[in-house]
């Protein structure tokens, strides 16, 4: 393909009109690069489904073009889909040292670490993939070692921000490369792809340092044990908890599998500084006076199987919550998790603990890792893009991000609010959005690692809301005559009262439906039963249970 | 029963450790009075259940003692259970003029208005029920015509606050009877029963008037149509919307059944002042210039069937959302409703509307009707109760309310944090909590008005998360020999891939399980199939679907 036949294409396979399962693609001629491969947790409406990952049909069809998967940072919505992706598609993964540590944890769990190709990069790396060269810049976020990406293409430079905020006083030197960003902007950016999570929030994101002072205050005020919960991946917050532990002369126990694992990765790779003497095993907690102990644990989102939830019902073998212990939620509940968090607070109060929880604006125990409106405008101003593609947000966030972009100089009509699968094509420095490639949700069921289909889900939905009715009749296979009375079994459907009468009536309807048949037309009988019994039940109960007629011909 | 044998008992049948289905009981000797009869909306975990109402077994057993149901105000969590209650128990209902209007709407819908006994009271009413006399005081809340209740009993005065805040600049003269409250406190209160909804929030609740100024500002800034949504029952906010409509020379259309109904009740009974010329039918909206119209509608909580949701997808016949229309959410999303509200905002942005939504602390478009910590302390200070029973809240709210009470002088150990069904007995002015009466949730299914049982719910839960497998085998009823191959049908369970093989294996397991039987032991065969197939499936898929063996003996 000669250069004049080539088009630069940008699209998302996930991350648009949702928070979660981020996956973006930059394609030029025969070179295709993927950015991130996230997962999204399913909500209750997806019955029994645990994880949602991007549909990668397009990538499977174009596997020969794929040059690599570049990962901006180690959050679940950017790396959670990788094990499932690698089971379908072989390709090298590029990520920073800390991000790779988290990816390795996952691949080891899925027993595919050995056959995977992982390449460590840093913000100074330069990579070449056919016609696309790639360089990077550092960003601040709520996890260490984050990257923004510059794709140098024959059509111009594309910038992907990854997740970011501007934190001018970051913990552990996690500074943004502002000078580098300015230089990139000066060199010219044809398209900026920027995250939109906090496009609804006015102002500038507070610095992570702010949380540190509140943690310190709470530690100095505490009289008993301190139990503090945050996201394990927020290593900078973990560092501030370590610092406060130091200042109050306490020892630190880690509780919860992901806390232990992630802190180990962070210590091994030099992203958090915890002196050896400070760390104790959870089993040692009971042997120390409460005022000498900090327990750092998972479960700040109310996850029912995480450490904090178990502590709140005193179901942990090693650590007991005692009256006057202080429990701190050093993380705001993500929308949707409020109820689970509240339940834990209720339980902790019942155990007599003091609990610091609720809105970060009151407790000061959390700041966001995602830039507010002023952060987003600063990025747009630094990059001065010709075209703008807001990503990583629901529609209203993308919409508001567009308004911000126009405020700081992006031309009207130069912002593309796309959906997953919509392709922005750039040719001769002009961008247009016309085509669409397949994109959607792939469901992963909890234990089996198996993908499950729409039909199974639809069935579960009916079963869960309307219940079901199995109807069994035996007929003579010669003449279709009924041999037995119909028998009906309901589950999740019939009300306690009147149920016997209702079932008797159903059986009567079944008889009247199949007795006129003059031959053993099993399909016909099934269809007729579904229709007649369905109508009868809707009339009687206003419900539409799943009806499963079973005709046995003997 | 002589006075010395009588005990004063206080308990809740709903409203404790939950927000919703409030129902409280004051009982002395043979006189029993009920306060409120609310409903609670079911969340998604209660599959297919719409409404939860209190379990009134105790009241049915003591129907001869019931003197009346006194209703503090007209919110769903205080009146929503009344129709279901009246179908079980005959008793007169006492409520203020506006509250009665809302109750009548409900009873008419359930076609039981005519046979119900409704008694209008006001804050000056005095009622006598055997040994218990009752008087009232006015409170401010987010609905007009609210009452607090004083029960004058031989053991002393019990005060039930109803829902309240202190609003010193209320809309439409909905003042609190502060002087009367002070007098009640001076006369002595043996027990205060007070609501706890906002016990977590520091400070004093802002006045409803504050919302009025923000509404006015938004109306003056709007260029196109204004669509504004709030709770229909918040008649004072409706009044402020009417006032802003007046000031901006617009006409007002009401949209949504409950908005039309409630505003009619409020107008008929004099709780809101809307000039006739201002009101237009929704069908007239299209005939007026957009800048001359305000549409006041239901759906501020994102309810999928309410007016605003339909507008957001332009599915209303009469009113279309046009670019530059302004849509205002004049109500904060109740926790749990954020996602539905967000979806509507997304849709409205896609239609080109300006949308004012989100946190009340940013928009100013909502204030709570429930008192914050300082309001609660003021009530406690006015009433100076000997004993305190915090109600209307989850555990953490009750717990924090207790701490507030102790701060303003309630003795330690004199606060009872009860659960639904726990009884506080007062005898010789000493209160103790020892007994428990039955209390719990009664589920009402959506259409049928029928109550449904725990087993049905449990089945739905399994069906929804694990799916099911029906296994049919025909045997000879003489010797138990298998006549047909087993046949298995799955719904909501088997993954698309491998399913045929899995089902074939299941059938094999069934064969091996029942073939050893030497007689037609149907129950035994069913048990064996459940066990063996269950184990096999769990081993293979880590799932535990519902297994329904059906054995046909011919």
TrEMBL record, chains A, B:
Transmembrane segments: none
Single Gene Ontology MF annotation: RNA endonuclease activity
Positions that bind substrate: 232-234, 366-370
Cofactor dependence: Ca(2+); Zn(2+)
Pfam families linked to this entry: Lactamase_B, RMMBL, RNase_J_b_CASP, RNase_J_C
Cellular component GO terms held in the UniProt record: cytoplasm
NCBIfam families with a match to the protein in the record: MG423 (TIGR00649)
Family of the protein in this entry: Belongs to the metallo-beta-lactamase superfamily. RNA-metabolizing metallo-beta-lactamase-like family. Bacterial RNase J subfamily.
Name the record gives this protein: Ribonuclease J
Taxon lineage: Bacteria, Bacillati, Bacillota, Bacilli, Bacillales
